[in-house]
Design goal:
It is found in: Cytoplasm. The protein has about 200 residues and is an alpha+beta fold. About 15% of the residues lie in helices and about 55% in strands. The protein has two domains: about 10-110, Lipocalin (Beta Barrel); about 115-195, Lipocalin (Beta Barrel). The protein has helices at about 1-25, 110-120; strands spanning about 25-35, 40-45, 55, 60-65, 75-80, 85-95, 95-105, 105-110, 120-125, 130-135, 140-145, 150, 155, 160-165, 170-180, 185-190, 195. It is elongated and about 65 Å long. About 15% of the residues are buried. Mean pLDDT is about 85; it is low at about 1-25.
């Protein structure tokens, strides 16, 4: 009798280990999207047997659909403080293989990030042991720091403009100066406590 009980325990162990494994294999795609308010992690679970679709943004469940008879299609949701539109496209490649692509504001992630690098500047710095990510949106001159839109004061100076704001008790300034070259346009430089911060590449 005891032997049979041991067997059932083993079966249960195997079953729970397997169901955990099954849960893990539904995760089919992970993307990291750099927006003005921070870098957001998008995870997508797709159960190709049940048709289950789950979208997580920064670890928080945004969409859950348990039984979908159509395995291909799209899921649309928003990301970040500015509620940026994101769409995951699910396409069948062959047989039971699927391809997952992420679009941000109607553009492929690659195109969106290329375009974004033209319209934003990003700086990553450490002040007093805290890491900060400062983003300038060149079209609106909005400044974001660690997910918060900053209060700024702009002024015209001899060779361009300066946008002043503060992070903690540190004075920050983004200088905008013409490069003198049409292709390069305006060069933006972040200065914190009279120290120039190199631009980050995302």
């Amino acid at each position: 009798m005891a032997a049979r009980e041991e067997i059932t325990v083993c079966e249960d162990e195997v079953r729970s280990r397997y169901s955990h494994l099954e849960k893990m294999t539904d995760l089919v795609a992970v993307w990291e999207v750099a927006l003005s308010d921070g870098v957001h992690k998008i995870e997508f679970e797709h159960g190709t047997t049940s048709g289950k679709r789950v979208v997580y943004v920064d670890g928080k469940e945004e969409i859950r659909k348990e039984w979908m008879f159509k395995l291909v299609g799209k899921e649309t949701f928003t990301v970040g403080a500015a509620k940026t539109k994101a769409t995951i496209n699910i396409d069948a490649v062959s047989g039971f293989a699927y391809e997952y692509t992420l679009e941000i504001n109607g553009k492929s992630l690659k195109k969106y990030m290329e375009n974004r690098s033209k319209i934003t500047n990003t700086w990553v710095l450490s002040l007093g042991g805290t890491d900060y990510r400062v983003v300038l949106e060149k079209d609106t001159m909005d400044v974001w720091c660690n997910g918060q839109k900053m209060e700024t004061a702009g002024e015209f100076v001899e060779d361009g403009t300066e946008t002043h704001f503060s992070v903690g008790n540190h004075s920050c300034c983004i200088k905008a100066v013409s490069s003198g070259k049409r292709k390069e346009g305006i060069i933006h430089t972040l200065i914190v406590d009279d120290r120039e911060i190199p631009e980050a590449v995302e």
